[in-house]
Fold each of these.
Amino acid sequence: MTLDASTSARGDLVLKNLTKSFGEFNAVDDLSLVIPKGSFFALLGPSGCGKTTTLRMVAGLEEPTAGSIFVGATDITDMKPYRRPVNTVFQNYALFPHLTVFENIAFGLRRRGVSTAEIQSAVDKVLNLIELPHLAQRKPNQLSGGQQQRIAVARAIVNKPALLLLDEPLGALDLKLRRQMQIELKWIQTEVGITFVHVTHDQEEAMTMADTIAVMNKGKIEQMGTPEDLYDSPKTSFVANFLGQSNLIPGKVIGSDGSNMIVDLFGTKIGVPKTRNSATGDSVLVGIRPEKFRISVEGKPTQGNVLSGGIVSDVSYIGVSTQYHVEMPWGKEVIVFEQNDDDEEMLRKGAKVVLSWEPIFTFALDSTENSSTTSI
Amino acid sequence: MAAFKGTSTKVFGLNENRSALPYLLLLPGLLWLTLFFIVPIFSLGQMSTKVSGGETGEFVQSYRFSNYLDAFSASQEQFLRSFVYGILATLIALAISYPLAYAIAFKSGKWKNILLVLVVAPFFVSFLLRTIAWKQILGEEGPVVSFLRTLHLISPQTSITSSAFAVVTGLAYNFLPFMTLPIYASLERIDPRTLEAASDLYANGFTTFRKVTLPLSMPGVVAGTLLTFIPAAGDYINATILGSPANKMLGNVIEARFFKIVDYPAAAALSFTLMAAILVLVTLYIRRAGTEELI
């Protein structure tokens, strides 16, 4: 067997101006990205945003219309999939139904001409890692969904690729199993040290597992950063609403006060930390996460930023918190999550309320972005 | 079966009868098989051990099992020929059908349905007519002979009708759809992602075919070879129309014993022998192929 890129190429994954068009439609639009070696990277976005197409181009299963893909210094853009230093965990696992679990995992090693003894020990090792050594001689259709999922991961990582691509790997599992597998995958990644590129539409999944998340929308990356970055300082309304919920209220910057800028929201002045402002002009969208609000009946003392004149229009009790819809004087609703951690009485529909929050929990976006109060 | 049971409860409201329903559904088929298969087989078995009662067409039961030995030793040559022709025709049909089925399943795009109709299209014409047409195609004025003569692959004197070649190709041609359709069905069922997974795991196109596509299509290959071999080995039309007396198969012998010589016991004994031989061969083949769990 010849030594090719599948064993030699190592390093960061670099996508340069990657584009994939299907006719007139750009599924992936001039995407440039560096994924550092050894990281757990998530491509997060709604269905149809181009994340799976991006992944398939890296795997070699889809040919880019333009642009290039590098692993370290090796250009793999035109390389056949079977020569790439990349392995994939497919959405529906795509295990070989005619082969035993052992042979499924050994498939890649056998193709590369690894000796029988080495295959035996490598497969045993990875079966122990995923804690399923007793299933080696079973066929895939005799396994549960969670077991098949782990075999699919084992089949890929046993080859020690430079890069492991995971295409919605947990999509077919139920919620409880999904949570468990999230932790397990994260642990496996730390254990083997391979770069994981994880494609998902589930923001919670991305935030639980990834070091870095790139939020994709319409073939482009909207914003990239750590889960905390993205949640605390979204740069676009799409990101603000795709990762959790946000209340976005249009306002105008009218001045400055130390580290805060002063923004006028329909006649009320509030402070926004300058460090959390991503707008360039005076017209901004002020963002407040629903759980950052404090809600109280009119007349009670408040501090920080205050918006008054709200009327509770809907109340839903969801256990850990109570979710309020509050109609504001300017005619739009905001959403408030109130932790159920005190013995205060639940507010009723129609109650007149005041919303307040610490200025540091406020962010500001460019108002040219489309505004919407809330959505997921 | 579980889904079926669920529906039966909802649709018919026959909750208490639901265990009886499957048997009721089996009944017409069972009746048919009893009347037209089990009863005739039984009378065929009885006939095979009778001896001539003197007049033509009159036979009396004497449990003469040596009928089998006599009939077999008189037609060993045709017996062997049936199997050789059957196997050759099956191999030719397989060699043509597999690539065809593969192309239809994976490469035909929007032409898929049209191609499938074309595969079945010969069935719109009767078996007999197709075989006679095949004789024309291979005949003196036909395209095959003139093509082969132009290439000097056969001498100007050689003809290819009334030959083993004509019989075997005729068999292969007539049973081709029985080979193509099961292979197509099993190829079609393969999840394309498993092929992508193979290529992702360092298998090139040929290795992917050898290690994944072919094993996963084995149920279709086994079904197709059986559906071709069994009727081909028992066939006598192709040997009658396309062959010479030197190409007679066991089917021809049975036909002659039955209709021309009116030796029913010998014809019945040969039918049983052929059936048993095919059954043994098929059992060995399925065991060897080991595709039980994939079917």
Note: Residues 1-14 of chain B have pLDDT under 50 and may be disordered.
Amino acid sequence: MNREKALRRLLSGAFFAALFAACVFLPAGPALSEDTPTAEAILDRFVEVTGGKAAYQQRKSEVVHGTVEFSAMGLKGSMVEYFEEPGKFYMAMDLAGVGKIESGLIDGVAWENSVLQGARVKTGEEQAQALREAAMNSFDHWREVYPKAEVAGEEQVDGELCYKVVLTPAEGKPESMYFEKKSGLMRKTTVVAASQLGDLVAESISKEYRRFGDILAPAKVTERVAGQEFTLTIDSMEANQEIPAEKFAFPDEVKALLARQKK
Amino acid sequence: MHRLLVFLAIPLWAQAPPNHQRDLDSFEKVWTTIRDKHWEKSPGGLDWQAIHAEFRPKVEKAQNIDEVRGLLTEMLGRLHQTHFGILPATVYEEVGVLGDADAIGEGSSGIDLRMLEGQAVVTRVDPGSSAERAGVKPGWSVKLANGVNLQAAASELEADPSIPEIISTRVLLGRISGPVGGKTQITFLDEAGAEAKRELALAAPRGRMASFGNLPDTPVWFESKLIDAASAGSKGPAGYVRFNYFLDLQRVMEGFGGAVKACQNCSGMIIDLRGNPGGIGAMAMGMAGYFLDQPGLRLGTMYLRDAQLNFAVNPRFPSFAGPLAILLDACSASTSEIFAGGLQDLHRARVFGSRSAAAALPSVIDRLPNGDGFQYAVGNYISEGGKPLEGVGVTPDSEVRLTRAGLLAGHDAVVEAALGWIETEKAAK
């Protein structure tokens, strides 16, 4: 499971971003040496070191439980996520004092809903981003999602030298992923995420990789966006669970919105 | 926690460096804060490093604290932006803007005050409060509060243009407050101009304590009702919603949605944000969704150092499409201004009352090493109509001010003006 992608989904409901500013500074890296691997090799290595193509391909569904914390604001809550191929996704955060913030994807319709903002259906680049992220739940699909991938340099992330790989999707802005030279693990991503608030630079730092079934994944991901920093901690991640269909069903508010849009 | 911080501060102040060093430290703190926290990388379009080179030698040569304040004010003035300023330490001592919060306390007698015609006038008495039981009426003015001449204080505060009315009002409210369980001695001037002395019990403030992250627990109340048209001199019922903070997110948002739902047949709706200092900014977007049926609209844009945030609105259902009046006064700030200013700019609401507090930015008041206060904003907010709210505020479409005489006669002129407009709108359709 690509935790950075999961966190990026939170952005769409992250009204917290409306409160403070962000400062993301990406220093330029050293020039590439002749023995720098290709982007394709770096990405394939990541698939390999985190479980291998076969392990990814065997995962048809996923149930994730965890916690989310906005430490600077003193907000904590729970997080649950359901994913099922092809293209079914649901995530809910429940924060004390804020309530439930849900988002999902089914039949190509990407939506979100909260007590605070009500329901909405994502369109345009936001919808494309949601579809892309659902496809990237299984990282070995990267070639289908990013027609272009190239190495852009080497940079330090948390004291580890990483290859910076820039991936360009068919629709949307280029994304940067940083893979540790030594281990091949992804340590950071930076994207310009489309959201209702506008385009937001988001940086994710992945830590504490551990095995969840056949896959190695970060148990802790810290995301910085628009001055807000929050950390997602994964407590459990179970593959190939039977997920009841109602888990992916539209909430009543989204159903009502879709019905109005059809009129 | 507050007591602990005060305790810890004592030895720090006792070991404070000589005055000149404290002034230099204060200069550095102001300059560095602007460099690091201003929403523009070149604050005000200036070469901020050059500003340091220009002002530091002047501060070094300053002969006294007044000169230092003048230099800091001049430096901040180069930004040509509001909500950047130096508050002399003496201001804190005189009006207690920030300090001595424990001494003021949170106890409430159920009175709300505003500065009207140079006096501290009761504008509202909470039902069931000690003030109501003691017969205190809206329109009475406060002459003395616990031995302090509040009439003189109100007059002085009103005459000082450097002190915003929202701050003055808080100071006055602080003077009639005290610890919960205590009592406050107030001498009022009643409708006949006669002195009316009352000893009022101080209870926990109205509302339910609400938590939101690191914010201190805050008492939040929410009320909604249908205004009886006949008693208000109107021809049809109107929905009325009032709450004291944009906090207690779930309860207030659900209450707001419920009020809109219950008002589907109303002639109009009134959202009374007088005295509401704001809270969670995103609640303005969530509430505005009940009055807009077109997707893609926004209330405005907040500009931070590395992000530009659209205050986008999702249409919500059931919505309310009838006349919408929003009531503001000089104590309506921040999220209240974002909500009112945005809906005014979108031509969806008509604003009644007086100009808002003009404090729509996330701004901070910090203390400097020399004891002065330093206020600075960390973002800029532009309402959808292209106007900044900071330092400007929301100007009502219909300027209506409360008067002492009107309150004494049992009238809320602002609500009545809104109701009158709603009736006119209804009649026009």
Note: Chain B touches chain A at residues 39, 210-215, 248-250, 253-254, 280-283, 285-286, 289, 295, 301-302, 304-312, 314-317, 362, 378-379 (CB under 8 Å).
Amino acid sequence: MRVMVLVKATEDSEAGVMPTAELLEAMGRFNEELVKAGVLLTGDGLKPSSQGKRVAFDGPNRTVIDGPFAETRELVAGFWVWEVKDMAEAVEWVKRCPNPMFGPSEIEIRPFYEMADFGDVVTPEIAERDKQLRAKIPGL
Amino acid sequence: MPDQESDDLLRKTMMAVETHQTIEAIFRIERARLIAGLARMVRDVGLAEELAQDAFVVALSEWTKTGVPTNPGAWLTAAAKRRAIDLLRRDRMLARKHAEIGRDLSEEDEAGIAAIEAAMDDDVGDELLSLIFIACHPVLSREARVALTLRLIGGLTTDEIARAYLSSEAAVAQRIVRAKKTLAKAGLSFEVPRGEERRKRLVSVLEVIYLIFNEGYSATAGEDLVRPALCAEAQRLGRILAGLAPEEPEVFGLLALMEIQASRLAARVGPQGDAIPLTQQNRALWDRLLIRRGLAALERAEALGGAAGPYALQAALAACHARARSAEETDWPRIAALYDVLRSVMPSPVVDLNRAVAHSMAFGPEAGLALLDAIDETALRDYAPLPAARGDFLFRAGRRAEAKVHFERAAGLSRNGRERAFLLGRAGACATEGATPYRE
């Protein structure tokens, strides 16, 4: 299964405090472990929300809101995408991650929707394509 | 209070279940590395697997009581190491008794144990790489290499392997036991091979991984058209290998090929389980993350000087399709040029056939027909895609009557019901007066 691993923001990360060389090195080692285990698909760090924008939707209206955003602990400071067997494996890998922040911090794991989750739901696109294919085959 | 008691029991049970899941996840993460370290130490893959298994059994009983240690990997390694040293001591004692030699062997013992300790402290990546090379060793049959790789590196159970290959668990278990015996008898070196030997052995490793991928991708057995779990396992093996051998261009070539091919898994099977050809797939369903990873891996293979490797070339072909936003945007001249190179690196009549198709798309049906005429057809005698391609080229060249004959021949050779109906449909279209030229 594919999971997104979200590193939550802290006051430090929101203030743009850069990690120490030690942390960068420890994080590098952890990333290397993930690569050698065939787990890591992609990942990156995000700039503080002061550099970000939000677009709020309300019916036909679109309102642009400039960062920074208030609810610091709910913001995302970085992410990985991993391929793991189950959530237990993802949790086990996260436990091995060095604390990504100076103080207390949190990492959240969220599984992706997968093909199987949609069961027999067939999108109109797929149905249409099938129809087109069949139209080319007389007698079907 | 009974309520309180049952609550406690429930909480304890749930904690036990959770611990059990945690321990299983740790085993999955540690297993291959542990076996790899032990194999180098005891020079026996079968024994290494048993020792690892013993360590897990001990961990399971300990950790459910005491909780999981902070560094479970080190804990498992230490436990397995102790067990291996005990075994070694016992073997030495037995040997001494048998030989009835009074000479003190304790110095030799200590040297042996020191060697074991050194082996376990070696670079973990190197050990895992060495285990991969051993599991894919050419002394084993292809089937044995596949089974052993899935078991030792992939951590699949014999039952899982049997289900993936629609075989019986007993047959797979026997194959693995026999493979381990063959390896033990061969007295192989557990070092990572170097130089020319490494090049040759790597070919076998890549072949095994691609065999696993293809078994998933084109499911030769069973009702399913694809078995995504096998593809995922092969991709994981490819990613592991890329992490362990980051200087090998063909490792990245194979990884690129698998990532890009797998990016289409969701798009290549229709709602009725039928295969949808590449040019007709809904490209919105292609997995962009896998495409991006595939293109990056291909770039890495090329940067390492491996652009002309057989896997890198096939990945470059797959990349041409991945880069095209619609079938119409496909860069057919580039695909034709890549096939020109591929046929010199990997000569095969099937490559020649695909090359003819690419040339027909790039330069017109006559170009395709000329290349088809040059193919040695003896190897493709009963191969439906050959007359199907000829029919298509003739049709596009306006030679309808001839095209019809070849479509019918192709339909007669096809063993797939849907494909047969499709080909008969095209044969029928040849007879239609004034029909618009058929387009894929």
Note: The mean pLDDT of chain A is 87.
Amino acid sequence: MAWFPAPLAGRAASLLSLLAIWEAAAWFAHSRLFPGAGAVLATLVDEAVHGDLLHHLGATLARVAVAFTLAMALGTAIGLAMGRSRAADTLLDSGVVLLLNLPALVIAVLLYVWLGLTEAAAIGAVTLSKLPTVVVTLREGARTLDRDLADMAESFHFGVWRTWRHVTLPQLAPFFLVASRTGLALIWKIVLVVELLGRPDGIGYAIQVFFQLFDVRRLIAYALAFVAVVLAVEWGVLQPLERRLARWRR
Amino acid sequence: MTVGVSVDIHEKSYPGHSGARPVTALRNLRACIAPSEFCVITGPSGCGKTTLLNIIAGLDRDFAGALSFEPSDRGAPRIGFVFQSPRLLPWRTVRENVTLVLARDADRMDLEGLLSDIGVADVADAYPAQLSGGMARRVALARAFAIAPDLLLMDEPFLSLDAAAADRLRGLLLRLVSTRPATVLFVTHDLAEAVELADRILVLSPAPGRVVAALPITVARTGRRDRDALAALRAELARIAGHPIGPKYSENSIFTAK
């Protein structure tokens, strides 16, 4: 059963061996520009307690949350429409392909130019970068919806709400999960770029500052803090949700 | 309360895909089914039997003709549909699959009784993927009976089961109909099945389908397993349907010949 998490002990061992390799490499390099794991973790704690880490982390997480929600909601609506209506598919397909191939950096720069260095431009750029992959995934989901089950629901007078909740949504759930998972990974990378280009706070902004100061210790500490949050979401929310949704499978 | 059904379909056709000519599935099909009648519909493959059931169920409204239920003053009849495949929701348990069709919670009173009558009470908390084909079909049957149907539409519901399992399910169906009366429209290719179940057999022509023969079965159900009686009924059915029965035809069906 592939969706069971690796046992906790195995996961801890793999994490610890990574830290050990890091520490050993830093000891050999013996450079201010390659700090060891211990130094970085100490900085991480120190920045969280005395520094601005939590402020920047909070700003970035808020942007990720808003952009993620917007991209999932809009992308699901557009994807379902395109999957179910040939006219909508024809009309919107070239727009989706265009967005899919437009680099996130270009979208961000253009929106900053047009809307100024604003929060709306930042979140808009992240949302637009993520949107097409959600559309494409959910369109695939809508195309695979089972006509036989829809007929069954209609013949037993399920109505719109019961059909959506018990017949349609469970069929879309795997596609929704794939879109969320790839979405989260993509969005947080784009958010950092957008912050670096034009926001006065957030992990991306902090990384720019530390880059100019050549402060690699803080740079890695800030990045690690964000990675820890993403891992927590993956292990604490996405994987349990996936197991729950898959429990009917044999 | 059971209902009667009248259909008078002038024409039902499907649009052809990408420039192909439209296909006419039914033409001039007229039939009247009496309240509480067990009516079996049979005919060659592709003669529109499933189309006819979809029209009666209200799933297909795109046809020229008329459909009415009697008595007509009681509003839309409750229709239970048992499909060719069980069509259960794989992500819902057996009990959830059956309760989902009920409009109100109050209707759940007799549900446990129904589940045990049909022999699925023990698997009520299982998911459909854990069931055998026969059990899944029982659940589909339970779902159709859960709404206390006035009219039961069954589209080759016991197809692809082994003979013994299909036999048990036919017995179960007859018991259920005797205690929970409903008008039944049952589509099958299997002549022995048709003869065992029917009050009356309607034979459809090859596409576009229309009723070419109606054969009331007057022998009591208990006498229908007799080989001679069955053979006589088969011969009669074949004669009025205009299809010869010979060795090249399969044992159970007069319609599946090459």
Note: DSSP finds seven helices and nine strands in chain B.
